[in-house]
Amino acid sequence: MGKTKHGGPIKLDTSWKPSLWASLMPMGLGKIKPHHIRDTMKVAYDNRDNLGYAYRILTQGVCDGCALGVSGLYDQTLTGPHLCTTRLNVLRLNTMSAMDAKWFEDVNALRKLSSEELRKLGRIPYPLSRKPGENKFTRISWDEALNRIATKIKNISPKQLAFFLTARGITNEVYYTAAKMARFLGTNNIDNASRICHSPSKTALKRSVGIGASSCNYQDWIGTDVLVFWGSVPGNNQPVSTKYMYAAKKAGTKIILINPYREPAMEKYWIPSVPDSALFGTKIADDFYQVNIGGDIAFMNGVMKIWFEMEEAKPGSAINHEFIKEHANGIEELRKHVMNESWDKIIQSSGLSRERIKEFAQLLANSKNGVFVWSMGLTQHKFGTDNISQVANLAILRGFFGRKHTGLMPIRGHSGVQGSGEMGADPFSLPGGDFEEKSWDRIEKIWNFPIPKWQGDIVGITLENAVLPDGHERKTRLFYTSGGNFLETMPDPDFMEKCLESVELRVHQDIIFNTSTLVDAKEEVIVLPAMTRYEQPGGGTSTSTERMVYFSAEVEGPRIEEARSEWEIYVDLAARVNPEKKHLMHFSNAAEIRAEIALANPNYDGIQHLKNRGDVFQWGGAWLCEDGVCPTPDGRANLIPIEIPDLNKPEGHFYVTTRRGKQFNSMVYSKKDPFNNADRYDILINAEDAKELRIAEGENIVVYNKYGTFQGRAKFEDTRRGNIQVHWPEGNVLIPKGVYETYAGIPEYNTAVKVEKADTFHANKDLKYVEREVEDLEVNVG
């Protein structure tokens, strides 16, 4: 799929350029901004008991934060050291000592703590058990724990068994072993956190251009004509990437953000490792297109409509006809569809004027190169796959992929996620392919045991299945999760708690407690202490957003005595369930897993050679679809007409979406967002919208719909009118349960709500009245 090799890191231009400065005030004094030096000092203090080990992790290990792929302090994009506060914040998870045993004596006391407070108690020291009616966790041996789990597995149907793996710190070796173990045990109910974030990216890119990963590199940002971010704020989620954007600005690249909120982190940023940026900040985005939540499809249809109108006046002025002729299908069908869309519908849905849409269309038309980057602002919708195929349509029409300074990039938020589906750890995939007949035959020859042929469930359905009646063949009776906190990541937390309580045996394989760990189970909760990636014997690998496969060696340091490598736990469990065939599910060391990965996923041929600190290779070459040739049946890309979704926002309602603050996934590190000074219960609302509702800034307000009620304070921010934002997971009470994207099964995280002053709401409405008022509000918008 790719031929050209990545050329290695390029030298960062650190010459001072005052025209890019964000402020003349040194160090951004008086500005709302991250305080990198203060945060770094706090991290050093928090890790004071293990500073040597912490230093070795940072300088020897591959980052277990975001998916940029920093190995030690260096990456494959730019020269020089790279270190961000996201990585520093998760550092303590690796260096903590074990929890004090006194905490296991009173579960009710633990339930009074937040996940942040639970996290600070320390690492899980040994296997634990808690049964119904017990207010304490009891220490058990590894043999007891795994034998109980194995016995339960043998006494239920494989369709009643499910596995889940989170993203932080999990290696390819663990994902692969889990994927193989699940099928060895007869189940396809296995899922991972990556699929909940980016599965529409994979499904859309496969149908549009035949690939399931980023087509380009981070280096392609630097020197491209235009770098467009859709619903993605890497300044907040992947902080080191601000250095890439700084380099791109120096090279003359225009940076555009398409998002309902004018994100402060993309407007200006103080990059601590670049002297002039650390002092005076850097202007990041050149322009902001503030679409409605869910309005991206309409916006992109408008862009293409402008292009086809330009083509009528002057052929070749907007569309790369030579590229289309050689490498794409469907242009006439797309043209007819787009030209039939009315401007009234496009403008209403997108929230942008025809003039603004034309500005963006002309910017792309005048650009020889472009890189499109997106994240959960596009994917976590019930039409997420269509969102991404629209982005692909724009890239295909301009020929913006398969060569230098162009590409389609679903940017990843966690270091372990790119490899998860590529290792087969979800219900729609097997190592190196989709869950389909040709993959079954290929993998069965490698594994030497039959693969169950029925379609497995995504994790949301798996959890909902726990409340099915007894006797149902899909009732989830054993749920085994490696990390993850479903009370704080899924819509409708109360319902999620009911689901977790309804599972007979629930296994939490983790390094720390969280609030989900404390939920009752019908028969037993078993907690297993896992190793971190830096403790894994024989090291481990992770795959970055740009398909770089990095080797992270075992790092010398203190250990939790009874913690075990996650892949070893899976191997041991499989042997106890089916001892007669345990040789088919056996690995002696991590190197053996890598050798088998190279066979099972041909793209990963090369992983078997990774064994030393700093080892890395990129699967697929520098660019997928190089020179426009796609790995589709006919080698061509597919232009796909996409209908504008019917958002149906009722009169007087707002669209609401969830946002992140200073956090890593559900792990919150500060009550304040360093970019806008919002706290966790601030509701971001446009000042003009608030004025119409006679709401003052800082006033208590209520956001509600038929699914839930959220009370917070009004914070005036530059959001698109009619759109508000609440923090995730606090605002998840507003999100409907059981709404999934059609093609990829991603949960919907956006909906329609009403907003009122708190005193008015509480004075005039009881819950029944609220439900009556919104009972017809069935719409779930993006």
Automatic annotation (TrEMBL):
The Molybdopterin dinucleotide-binding domain covers 655-752
Lineage at the top is:
Bacteria, Bacillati, Bacillota, Bacilli, Bacillales
Domain Molybdopterin oxidoreductase stretches: 123-575
Q: What is this protein called?
A: Formate dehydrogenase
InterPro entries noted in UniProt: Asp_de-COase-like_dom_sf, MoPterin_dinucl-bd_dom, Mopterin_OxRdtase, Mopterin_OxRdtse_a_bac, Prok_molybdopt-oxidoreductase
- Judging by the UniProt lineage, the source's domain of life is Bacteria
Keyword tags:
Iron, Iron-sulfur, Metal-binding
Keyword Iron carried by entry: yes
State the Pfam families in the record: Molybdopterin, Molydop_binding
- According to the UniProt entry, the coiled-coil residues are none
